[in-house]
């Protein structure tokens, strides 16, 4: 690492992890360029010293490239790109319209990709330690009734991040995917989550309906403290504090509830492979 001051560009900085990562970075004397769909939503960050810009990640790539160019020009470089934009679409697959499907992938996946594309030329030319962090979810480790599209988008974020890590390693850019468990971020507020416009009684009486009720109960009762989580993330991305002496990992499995989910998925997958060994893998040419 060099002694240069880190410069952060953060999407969806109006709330949740985007906001708290910005606050944590500012508290350390770092430069922060915070973005949201409107400046009024991040005026509090501006009052604390952040530069604020308008960015809708669903905008055309050409528009995002203009934002990236201006951000890079501000301080001459960008060291940490944080893709925090995303939302949960709740509903059974059969209930969801193609437009709802497209919109959630547009924000959660394609928006992330376009932001990365726009910033990569600048990140490659920036000096010192650089990172790209994309927000996945513990939901990327297992789908469930009522949040199939959300799980699918977060699986995509994790897979894309793993591939990007290999692509960008030669340039010294570390890529990671942050996979939080349940944190009290406002993510599950009724005005933040998106419910399917169409509901079907057959699903309301099933696990999908149970999920809708469970999300209401979980909202504001999540175990994770987003401020503490943001501090760990900034430590990891800057290889300082609790992460001093460590490299930026491929994934940050964040929260007390998250590791158990990953371990259970790994164990069940190993059991699956063992149970079908000698049947599904005996398929090579003689």
TrEMBL record:
Keywords: Oxidoreductase
Domain of life: Eukaryota
GO terms (BP aspect): siderophore biosynthetic process
InterPro entries attached to this UniProt entry: DHB_DH (IPR003560), NAD(P)-bd_dom_sf (IPR036291), SDR_fam (IPR002347), SDR_oxidoreductase (IPR051911)
One function term, GO molecular function aspect: 2,3-dihydro-2,3-dihydroxybenzoate dehydrogenase activity
Family: Belongs to the short-chain dehydrogenases/reductases (SDR) family.
Name recorded for this polypeptide: NAD(P)-binding protein
Organism: Ophiobolus disseminans
């Amino acid at each position: 690492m060099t002694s240069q001051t880190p410069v952060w560009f953060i999407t969806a900085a109006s709330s949740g992890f985007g906001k708290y990562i910005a606050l944590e970075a500012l508290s350390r004397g770092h430069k922060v360029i915070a973005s949201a769909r409107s400046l009024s939503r991040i005026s509090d960050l501006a009052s604390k010293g952040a530069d604020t810009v308008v960015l809708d990640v669903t905008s055309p790539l050409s528009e995002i490239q203009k934002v990236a160019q201006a951000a890079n020009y501000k301080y001459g470089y960008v060291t940490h790109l944080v893709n925090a934009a995303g939302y949960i679409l709740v509903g059974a697959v059969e209930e969801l319209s193609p437009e709802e499907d497209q919109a959630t992938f547009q924000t959660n996946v394609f928006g992330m990709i376009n932001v990365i594309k726009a910033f990569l030329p600048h990140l490659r030319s920036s000096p010192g330690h650089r990172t790209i962090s994309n927000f996945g979810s513990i939901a990327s480790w297992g789908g469930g009734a009522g949040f199939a599209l959300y799980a699918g988008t977060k699986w995509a974020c994790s897979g894309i991040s793993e591939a990007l890590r290999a692509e960008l390693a030669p340039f010294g850019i570390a890529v990671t995917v942050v996979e939080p468990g349940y944190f009290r971020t406002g993510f599950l507020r009724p005005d933040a989550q998106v419910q399917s416009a169409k509901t079907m009684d057959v699903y309301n009486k099933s696990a999908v309906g149970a999920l809708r009720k469970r999300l209401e109960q979980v909202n504001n009762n999540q175990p994770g403290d987003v401020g503490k989580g943001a501090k760990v993330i900034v430590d990891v991305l800057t290889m300082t504090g609790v992460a001093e002496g460590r490299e930026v990992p491929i994934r940050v499995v964040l929260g007390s509830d998250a590791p158990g989910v990953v371990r259970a998925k790994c164990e069940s997958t190993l059991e699956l492979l063992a149970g079908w060994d000698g049947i599904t893998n005996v398929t090579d040419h003689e």
